[in-house]
């Protein structure tokens, strides 16, 4: 028996229970691993609250790193003792040990620590598809990213800057603005004291940006559309303030034939080759020093409910780990 954070009913952080669970032997195509760290991500709150509905009871957590302790039949490229990381379903990283499909994990290279991996796999691969595939950032682009001081935001700012972009970010405080400035952002807008549409137009001399990356959702919609230049792309990849409400598609016409996409990491890494390619691109940019991964907060795994409360209260910045 091992300990894990599990919910039986959707709701607030108080629904998270520190319980013992049984973890069996790996079946065909599976591995068993001992988690050394789990990453905290906003999507975890969607699973806990029931915004994203999943079968119950449920061990939370999509992101983690650890050491392989057993392999099932048919697993050829992963062996006992390998350090591995993952950021995908099935959920279960909020656990001391777990089973995982072997084709959903990647072996960690030298130069990437377990804690780095657990703090960057989901956020870093999200940043990877955003900057390289959802909208391929080119030198000279000016782009807007909401929640610049968050986990994805700090990775995104560095990566976008390394690709030659001028990077605009929104934040909710002066402290968060100063933090984001250290991670590649050229312009920071405090949305509590400034109108971000007006500031974006000022920074771009009225042109607007070709892409807005938005993990906030309801609170930044539809003002974000007003930041886009004609044919611009709204990449709405999260709902930290709540889901984007239904909208009339004709508003995209009046704002300049705009595009909207709702990308997910699940889709961008659905194929094994895409998962490995995304992870390797992340490992390479981190090992090169162009993107630095710093863990800003750690909590004991048993205190995951407090970590969720702090995340939802916007008390955290950057990457947060839960340690078994």
TrEMBL record:
<dbReference type="Pfam" id="PF00107">
    <property type="entry name" value="ADH_zinc_N"/>
</dbReference>
<dbReference type="InterPro" id="IPR036291">
    <property type="entry name" value="NAD(P)-bd_dom_sf"/>
</dbReference>
<dbReference type="Pfam" id="PF08240">
    <property type="entry name" value="ADH_N"/>
</dbReference>
<dbReference type="InterPro" id="IPR013154">
    <property type="entry name" value="ADH-like_N"/>
</dbReference>
<dbReference type="InterPro" id="IPR047618">
    <property type="entry name" value="QOR-like"/>
</dbReference>
<protein>
    <submittedName>
        <fullName>Quinone oxidoreductase family protein</fullName>
    </submittedName>
</protein>
<keyword id="KW-0521">NADP</keyword>
<dbReference type="InterPro" id="IPR013149">
    <property type="entry name" value="ADH-like_C"/>
</dbReference>
<dbReference type="InterPro" id="IPR020843">
    <property type="entry name" value="ER"/>
</dbReference>
<dbReference type="InterPro" id="IPR011032">
    <property type="entry name" value="GroES-like_sf"/>
</dbReference>
<keyword id="KW-0560">Oxidoreductase</keyword>
<dbReference type="InterPro" id="IPR002364">
    <property type="entry name" value="Quin_OxRdtase/zeta-crystal_CS"/>
</dbReference>
<feature type="domain" description="Enoyl reductase (ER)">
    <location>
        <begin position="11"/>
        <end position="322"/>
    </location>
</feature>
């Amino acid at each position: 028996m091992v300990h894990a954070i599990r919910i039986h009913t959707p709701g607030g952080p108080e629904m998270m229970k520190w319980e013992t669970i049984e973890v069996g032997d790996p079946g065909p195509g599976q591995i068993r691993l001992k988690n050394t760290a789990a990453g905290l991500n906003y999507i975890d709150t969607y699973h806990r609250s029931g915004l994203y509905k999943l079968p119950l009871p449920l061990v939370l957590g999509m992101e983690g790193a650890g050491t392989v302790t057993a392999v099932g039949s048919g697993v050829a490229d992963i062996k006992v003792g390998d350090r591995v990381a993952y950021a995908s379903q099935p959920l279960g990283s909020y656990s001391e040990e777990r089973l995982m499909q072997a084709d959903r994990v990647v072996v960690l290279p030298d130069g990437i620590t377990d804690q780095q991996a657990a703090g960057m796999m989901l956020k870093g691969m999200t940043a990877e598809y955003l900057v390289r595939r959802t909208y391929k950032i080119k030198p000279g682009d000016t782009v807007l990213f909401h929640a610049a001081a968050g986990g994805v935001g700090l990775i995104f700012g560095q990566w976008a800057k390394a690709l030659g972009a001028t990077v605009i970010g929104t934040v909710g405080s002066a402290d968060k603005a100063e933090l984001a400035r250290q991670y590649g952002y050229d312009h920071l807008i405090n949305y509590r004291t400034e109108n971000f549409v007006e500031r974006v137009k000022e920074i771009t001399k009225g042109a607007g940006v070709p892409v807005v990356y938005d993990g906030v959702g309801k609170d930044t919609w539809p003002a974000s559309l007003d930041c886009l230049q004609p044919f611009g792309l709204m990449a709405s990849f999260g709902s930290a303030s709540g889901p984007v409400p239904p909208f009339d598609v004709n508003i995209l016409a009046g704002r300049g034939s705009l595009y909207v996409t709702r990308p997910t990491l699940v889709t961008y890494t659905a194929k094994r080759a895409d998962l490995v390619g995304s992870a390797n691109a992340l490992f390479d940019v981190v090992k090169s020093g162009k993107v630095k991964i710093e863990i800003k907060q750690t909590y004991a795994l048993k205190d995951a409910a407090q970590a969720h409360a702090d995340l939802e209260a916007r008390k955290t910045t950057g990457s947060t780990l839960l340690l078994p």
